[in-house]
Every structure is written in C-alpha cells, then in structure tokens.
C-alpha cells in the first residue's frame, strides 16, 4: 500500500530521508564494514556519531554551555523516577497537573519525597492550563514540574512559565517528550528538560535529558548508578552501554532538521499544520475539539465526532485512505491526530480532505 500518513502519538512518523539514509548505511556505515548496530560504543566510529549528534543537538536547540546533554534510557516514564532521585534530595516537589502524563509524574515522584499539587486543570477535564499566577508553590520546593505538551489531552504550554516572576527560586523541570525540537526553548527559565525520543527525535529507546550543571551531583544514596546524572555526565553518556542505534538515528534526524531550516522553520511549519486542522474542526458541524484555543497543542490534536456511533466508520474510511493511527487514547476516546515535525503538510491536508468528505456523506 506504500507509505501511509501515520498519525501515531509515538513511536511516530520519521522523516523519509532519514529512513532512506539509515537503510543505505545498514550493512556498512561509511566504509567501516559494520552496521552501527554492531559497533562498540567506545570505538572511534560510534564516538564520532555520538559527538556529532550531541553537537548538532546543542546547536539546534541553542543549549547553553552550562547545561549538560545526556543520552539515556528508560523513556519519559522512567525519568519520572530518575528526576526526583537526582533533584529531590528527599524533600518536597511541586507539580502542575495538566493531563495524564503530569499525573503519572506526580504519582511516581511521591516515592522519593513529598510530591505536592501546585495547580490542576482536572475540573476542566484537562482542556485548559491553570494560570501560573494561581500556582501554589512551597517555599521549600526542590523543583516545579510541568508537562510541556500533554499528548493525550492535547494541551500545550506555548510559553514556559517564568518562575522567578512568581517569586520562586526552584528550578523548572519540563517533560518535553512530545514538543522537543518543534519550537525554540527559553533555557533561562529551565533547570532540566527530559523526553523520550520516539515522537520528534527518533526511535524508541533513547531518552534525552538536558540539565543545568549546578543541579547535578545530589542524587539520593539509593539512586542506581546508571541513573545518577553526575556519573552519566562525567562519562559522556557512556557510563553504561547507551542505546547506540537510537542515538545514530536521532543524529540523522538532527541533520535533517538543520537541512530543513532548523527549529525556527520547523515551528512555522507546525503552526501552519495545526492551524489548518483546527480551522476545519472549528467550522465543522460533525467534529469538535474541546481544548481552549489559547493552549491547544500543535503536536497532538484530539477530536471527537459529535455522534460517536460513527467512530468505527470514520476510522475504517481513514485506514482505506492511508490515514493511520487516528484512534484516540483509550482513557479519553475519540480521535487523535499527532502531527509531529516529520508529518508533512500534505498529510494534514489529506486528513482534512477526508474529514470534509466524511462530513458531507454523513450529513
């Protein structure tokens, strides 16, 4: 059936050029006689891949020199434990609840210190973001955690909160799993950012952590060595065997991003894709999006049929049209279109065309 438009929330669509390059280099990387999968992580070939990937990522995201870039494992879910193991010092942490992922973060962190709710949008069904002015952050807070983009509920912080303006000196921790590299980051407002690679950066298996240097070195005594940020940083992410092939693929994605105008250009494309889809949803009598307009995600667009008895017909027709993975998360139902960096504008245009035709035939 050829290449489809894949709207999966993750693992997600990859740039076709990256897949083609990886295929061409599968058996023999640059005359080495080896696949990247077969290389020692301490050999000169892979070290060159790693160093280029780290350099490209630092340039793309404009990461300041006083931040460490760590390539780790375990995904965003594991970082919900690894962050408090490194930053909490057994004290209190504050969480802003904006959907399923920040709820998971709160629950996990409670195993390693006192995890408090600073604000929540649960009463609104996680369709809004609580204003930072309303956040209740303790004076003893070790850090404040937000999920920059909630993949399930489709809400996004388009601007990171400035904790200093709230009179808070605690570092901001951002789960940026599903919006990393989709828009610029204001690092002056961030202490640590983490995310799984399998949405915007590459395949599953790689976790990215970007952490301010002054925040490392305080891991709890029972923190596993492989998850101690200082040990990982001191060993250039080679304390244990890293996810080598996933780092290689992510490095190809970084090069693809650079060739396509970098993060600023990607943000403009993402705005255009999201606007096209939201404009249709707002004008539709059959479909709806329930998220407040000022915090709608550019990456994950949940939508619903007003008559949910038509869900199966919609999904069957979408599959026949080569539009895949549109079923919403089981916890919320409905549909969801994930339109990450690698989703071309043509994919969103094809989706809107199908939805428009479906609406016409179902009227």
Query: What is the chains' assembly state?
Result: single chain
Overall geometry? globular
Domains, number: 2
The strand count comes to 14
Helix content: 25-40%
* Low-confidence region ranges: none
CATH topology of the largest domain: Aspartate Aminotransferase, domain 2
**In what order do the strands lie side by side in the largest sheet?**
2-10-9-8-5-3-4
* Number of discrete helical segments: 9
Describe the largest sheet: 7 strands, mixed
Q: Strand-residue fraction?
A: 15-25%
| CA radius of gyration | 21 Å
What structural class do the secondary elements suggest? alpha/beta
Name the helix and strand elements from N-terminus to C-terminus, one letter apiece: EHHEHEHEEEEEEEHHHEEHEEH
CATH superfamily of the largest domain: Type I PLP-dependent aspartate aminotransferase-like (Major domain)
CATH class of the largest domain: Alpha Beta
